[in-house]
Amino acid sequence: MSQAAVLTPADTVAQIEQARADFLAACPADPAREESASPVQPRPLQLDISKYSGERYFSEFPPAFDWLLKGSLRCKTLGAMIGAPGSGKSTAAIQLAIAVAAGLPWLGAWEPAHEGRALYISAEDDELTLHRRVHHTLKTLPEQAQVQAMKNIFAVPVTGDVALCRGMGGDVIKTDALTDLRAILKEFRPTLLILDTLARFLAVAENDNPAMTAACALLEEVCRDFDCATVLLHHTAKVTGALASDDLSLNTALEQTASRGASALAGCVRWQVNLAPLASKLAVKIIGEDAVGRADGAFLAVRVSKKNCGAPEPKYFLSRCEHGLLRRVEPVAQEQEAQSREADAAALVAEVKRRAEEGLEPLASSRGGVDAFGWGVERHKKAKFYALESGGIVEAKKDKGNGTVLMPRACSRACSNAPFTACSDEPEQGFLVNNLK
């Protein structure tokens, strides 16, 4: 009879480890199990605040902003495009995507800092509509830019339930669609992502500020994780109206608060651009003869109503052209207004100088144009503002009584009702005109 082998403790441990290895090798991978074994991410406020001291911010020169659209839209930020239904948002969004894809200015006003991949996903329009818009927009580009843009632009129609998150019992729950989107972004790596529209992609109550804030936070996470700017298309509120019929309604449509639903959206996004179709009468007033006979909505105003870095931006005007494409136009009315404003400012400066030279009583700052030329108060205010900006005149306190008067540039002493002597250092010829342009 043979003697049984005696196992040492080390042999026993080795056999157990080998059996475990054989078992794991025979079992399929369990993604949920692997995910649970991944390192736990720190909570947002679990941080070392010493890295964010004022001393470091002062001692280290800050890096330049990472612009997507120079001076306007930054990379890796959340933005929104706001407009009434049918205002041209989707076309403007495709033109934005192709501008980034080609590295060419968008609507003749915003220049990309560099070219990059752009992904436009529409949950409203079908493939034929996207095909036509992309095709005709690419046709407007120079040949070399066409080649570049064709490689970088993808316009995808989607149908069905594509909500990235859903409001449930006061909470905002991520969906499988968000998982699918993140998988696309991981592979595609766009510089710009456009989602058309917010209502299709965020299934939360639009008037619920906490829910909208939480939904935006999910998209901000997407921006950071995949280094892309994300722009949501959204509608204006009903009170804004479908058409801007006068200056007041136009200004209302171009405000950052014009969007439908919760004000949290305007608070969360770092960049917002508004589109406002013009009624035909307002278009004629602003655009001039080119707008005569055109239908309502044939022209639009567009303005960046919010950005968190940089100075406020002016509004521009667009014309709907063949195939619905948008093209920037110069408003004749603005040119005429600028010329009139320059003429009024020049007239006010000349009158202030004349009165100083002849020893007459200076014009009151509050109503000089009213007294001298019979202008309205608002016209005087505009003329005075641009005359002061030009450096042609200054305001000074009266010697007697309250109030201020207008005097030629560099006259620092106060003026009374007594004869006044003009200054010797008058502006150089052409100073006013050059500075008012």
Automatic annotation (TrEMBL):
It comes from the Bacteria. This is AAA+ ATPase domain-containing protein.
